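TL;DR need structure tokens for one chain.
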Amino acid sequence: MNACVMSHAHYRRSFDTLEQWLHTQLATGEHFSLWYSAEDSQFIRFNHGQVRQASQVRQIDATVRLIREERHASETLNLTGDVETDRARLAETLVQLRALLDVLPADPYLQLDNQVFASDRLPDGSLPGADELIEQVATLSAGLDMVGIYAGGPMYRGFASSWGGRGWHVAISASLDFSLFHANGEAVKITYAASEWDADALAAEFARGREQLTHLGKPRKTLAPGTYRTYLAPAAVEEIISMLQWDGFSARALATRNSPLQALQLGSARLSPLVSISEMASTGLEPLFNSEGSLRQDQPLIERGQLVGQMVSSRSAQEYGLVANGADSYEKPASIEMAAGVLPSDDVLQALGTGLYIGNLWYLNYSDQGLARMTGMTRFASFWVEDGKIVAPLATMRFDESLYAMFGDNLLGLTRERSLRISTSTYGQRDAQTLLLPGALVDGFTLTL
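>> reply
TL;DR here they are.
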């Protein structure tokens, strides 16, 4: 990749040129689709609030699918941004794909989304420059043992097909994922993420972290296994809802009884009427089209505790006689919004009274997937609260609890304010998944050891 700074227009021209060239390369009876994924990201690692490493990552990946009759084959390749070099790579890829089509069997569930569409989202967002971000973090971290990573910048997504589907999408976002360590080794973990960077909001997160650090210096409280009144902060709720994203709302998983929400689907379990969850494609950072050329739709998933929708890919639509709604092959919601409640966030300790304040959870897994029973560990700034006041940090404990208890009969309330959670995943490339979530006050949360 060229080391010079690439503009939004450069990536757009790169995509447009490749699409136009592919149209000229098709043989009789052939069709193509092109998925274009790029980023221009700044990564900054911090240690003790100072820069440990700073780097810029600029990369472009493209997935080309060639279709002939009922046969299709695809290849993903890394591009350079140089038109001539990238055309040559695509030409080699087309030769390989044609050879594959000659020997592949027909795909009985192939359902091509050959609609004509145009979707265009221009850059929207404002992030600090590297120097400004470093100054903010260094100032806010003064006197703290702060370790974290900043990842931010534009992400580009494009789709084009020989049938006339065409989309271009630019999302600008950043996250600062960091921990503040006490001298005793305990830590407060905070993630601040935004498309419009707000220095005051970041300062408020640091102030909250400093306050919680003072409590981490107190002697730890070890609890006996049992059930406890509990407040789950939005970061903890994120861990729980993220578990449901994998197969929870998938049409394929629901049809084959592999979804953790199958009991809700069958009516043998229920959630609280306070719980409503939707896939909000129109407000998230992901594009309004997917890598297969289907247009993503806003989709209610749970309304007042009832399962009312599912994520349906074109393949599941063909196999199970459903109507596709823009889900990709993973059938995973990517722009989740959970309805807010009425409990002010500033009042959660008073509403909790005596019990657990859980700042985060980790290492979650299913102990009984069919019943949506999850197990995991408390972590990062979890406290014992008495009479609405934090009195001690908690020793790490394991929980084992059903979703139908946490967000069913035992759900007492949800916070009025919600936290925007932008994915911090950088595996292969930065992710644009978002979750907008409240905190949850729960009665009878089960700790096992």
